[in-house]
Every structure is written in C-alpha cells, then in structure tokens.
UniProtKB/TrEMBL annotation:
Domain of life according to the entry: Bacteria
Residues in Response regulatory domain copies: 7-121
Name of the protein in its database record: Two-component system response regulator
Residues annotated with 4-aspartylphosphate modification: D56
Keywords: DNA-binding, Phosphoprotein, Transcription, Transcription regulation, Two-component regulatory system
A GO MF term: DNA binding
CDD domains reported in the protein's UniProt record: LuxR_C_like, REC_FixJ
Gene3D superfamilies given in the database record: 3.40.50.2300, Winged helix-like DNA-binding domain superfamily/Winged helix DNA-binding domain
Domain HTH luxR-type residues, every copy: 137-202
Alphabetical GO biological process terms: phosphorelay signal transduction system; regulation of DNA-templated transcription
Length: 202
C-alpha cells in the first residue's frame, strides 16, 4: 500500500485568509490544499486522507461546526483545528468537547498556529498507527477457526486449560493444541500479549 502524504486542509471562505495561510504553511514545507467552503471539502474528502484540517467556524451555507458534525458521522478521524473570531470561543470549546483537536483565535501569531498544526499532525500519526495495529489484529482474528475463537475467548476470560476442556467437552490435549495455534496465528508469545490484543479491539 502506498504511503499517503499528510496534508494541511485549509477550509475558509475568506480568500485572503486562505492565501496567507497557504503562504505561511508552504513556506514551512507543508503540503497545503485550500477549500472555499465546507461543501467543496466534503466533495474532495477521501477516507485515506492524512494530516489535519484548519477550519473556519463561521462560513456561509455550512458552518465549520456543521462540517465537523458531518465528518464525525462519516467516521473521519482527521484532527480539526478551528479558527475562531472572539465571539466564537464558546462554540469552539463546545466543539473541543465533541472531539475537535484544538482552536485558535483570530488574530493569531503564526507560530501559535504552527505549534497547533504540529501537535495535530502528531495526533494524526498516532491515530494512523493505532488504525494499522487494529487492522492487523482484526486480520489475525479472521484467520482463527470457530473452535480456536472459542478457546481464545475462554483463555482471555482467565479459564484454565482443564476448565476450557470441561466447558467445550474436548480433551486437555486438544485445548493445548488450539491454544498453541491461537498464540501463533495472533502473533503473540504470552497470555498478557493475547489479552492486550483482544482488549484493544473492544
């Protein structure tokens, strides 16, 4: 799978603001894509996008907050930094409580914005790694047979081999064989690692 380059997606209906942000961020070596409305960003949005969104709170048609809610409903995990006017701070705080990454008040210092973007990109990287790890665990779980799955659930629940044998009405030797295959397929060496992998997906 080809690596997706993280980008800064600037969504703002103010052309001067888009231009100045683009100039600042590209000058720092970031890849920047600008959108003049929430709708135009939604049309271009793809699940595999990486990076962060710098989003104006107040826009005609669909506001930044409405776009945030829409992205949330689509399962987007791109970190969002809201750009707010002074009167919009309560709205931005409410957005933070609903999962936005950060907000910055206009007029802002360039370095403040750059610091927030750096944090958002680090968060995006963590989210991507977590997603990759979860996908790997899901794929491994998918390789287990029905019986191996049953044995694994009982092992993770803390049952001993003898208890598992009694519950599933199979021999201890069969339990041990299934258990060994579960560990191998799940790519873990210890019971603690197995429990952690299963709990990760819960």
């Amino acid at each position: 799978m080809s690596e997706v380059t993280p980008s800064i997606y600037v969504v703002d209906d103010d052309e001067a603001m888009r231009d100045s942000m683009s100039w600042l961020l590209e000058g720092e070596g970031y890849r920047v894509t600008c959108f003049d409305s929430a709708e135009s960003f939604l049309r271009a949005r793809r699940d595999e996008m990486r990076g962060c969104i710098v989003l104006d709170v107040r826009m005609p048609e669909m506001s930044g907050l409405e776009l945030h809610e829409k992205l949330d409903s689509l399962g987007s995990q791109l970190p969002i930094i809201f750009v707010t006017g002074h009167g919009d701070v309560p709205m931005a705080v409410a957005a933070l409580q609903r999962g936005a990454c950060d907000f910055i008040e206009k007029p802002f210092h360039n370095q403040d914005l750059l610091d927030r973007i750096q944090r958002a990109l680090e968060l995006d990287s963590e989210i991507a790694q977590r997603r990759q790890r979860d996908n790997a665990i899901s794929n491994r779980l998918g390789q287990l047979t029905q019986r191996e799955h049953e044995v694994m659930q009982l092992v993770v629940a803390g049952k001993l081999n003898k208890q598992i044998a009694d519950e599933l009405e199979i021999s201890m030797k069969t339990v041990e064989a299934h258990r060994a295959r579960v560990m191998e397929k799940m790519g873990v060496r210890t019971l603690a690692e197995l429990v952690k992998a299963v709990m990760t997906l819960r």
